[in-house]
Amino acid sequence: MTEVFDYEGFCSGRLEEIRAEGRYRTFATLERLCGQFPKARYHAPDGSVKDVTIWCSNDYLGMGQHPVVLEAAYAALENSGAGAGGTRNISGTTRYHAELEATLAELHDKESALVFSSGYVANEGALGTLGKLFPNCIIFSDALNHASMIHGMRDSKAQVKVFRHNDLDHLEDLLRAADASAPKIIAFESVYSMEGDIAPIAEICDLAEKYGAMTYLDEVHGVGLYGKRGGGVAEERGVMHRIDMIEGTFGKAYGGMGGFITGTRAMVDAVRSFASSFIFTTSLPPSVLAGANAAVRHLMVSDVERAKMRRNVAEFKGLLENSGLPFLKGESHIVPLIVGEPNCCREISQILMDHYSIYVQPINYPTVPRGTERLRLTATAAHSLQDVHQMAEILGQLWEMNHVAERAAAAA
Description:
By secondary structure, this protein is of the alpha/beta class.
């Protein structure tokens, strides 16, 4: 008799492997409290509840609780109800889609825009579709591109050439060696969220023009945060017009949910017409779209939130620098604090939660390479200066305690 495969046992074994490596992921059950961000209510596994301060949120500007956003979402909910009613092709396209897509095209000064259910789906759909449509396409991908971009490139079946992170010489070597007549896409991000650094966008555009490639820029950690109107790092550096397609999200600085692309009318329409992840997905509901549109519109004219975030980030980085903590000193608002070992990273996160009511999720492999485990810290516009100083002081104490223990062990 043929032995039946042990499905349960196999899954349990794989889970034990990642537990042993210290990279088994657990979720913290949080209840965001409207009007109190970055405070939230933590519901612990033992049933206890306490208030905590979040230090790893992507709601960088606190727009998820902004009155302008909430009012727009409430109005759409009362006007059109909760659901979308179907895919975009089957009754799911509303006036809220049309209004938001017009706003996004205006934001990035492009001919057209298209909204997706998430930033991940936008990247997967756009890169997967364009790479498949262009005959014999070659995609040049930064080594640290997000998983959603890698997913799209793999789905496209196009040839992919990976260049070392932000390495212009390596990128040019690959472009120079490629078939001059082949369609080419250079896919990269503006802000790399696990490193906190920023791409040399203008120089990549120079190479794209020199070798006849189109540029695809992921601005998910840039939109809303950089540029006079929140158009992203490309807008801030005056090169937005040189980018062929810009991808972004509403799930970070805009405080909502969903993703989008902007570009020429023909290329955006091609993605709309051929991307399965767009065609067969139920569309976002009116309240989400209206809230996103209100957030984008607000940040196109308001710099108040960006100014608060810049102040908090500068203060936080300065305090960490003075304490000698090993954080990656990138140009962006993201502060990766390197721990370097998964179990230690998880332990520090637990200490922060248990003893200081501070929530920070540990970042381990495969999100980052082994040996570079870290805490990805975000000082948002909603944090107070007191929050910033308290967090820097606590981290400094934990770091000093760790080094004292290391020195004592070495002496023994």
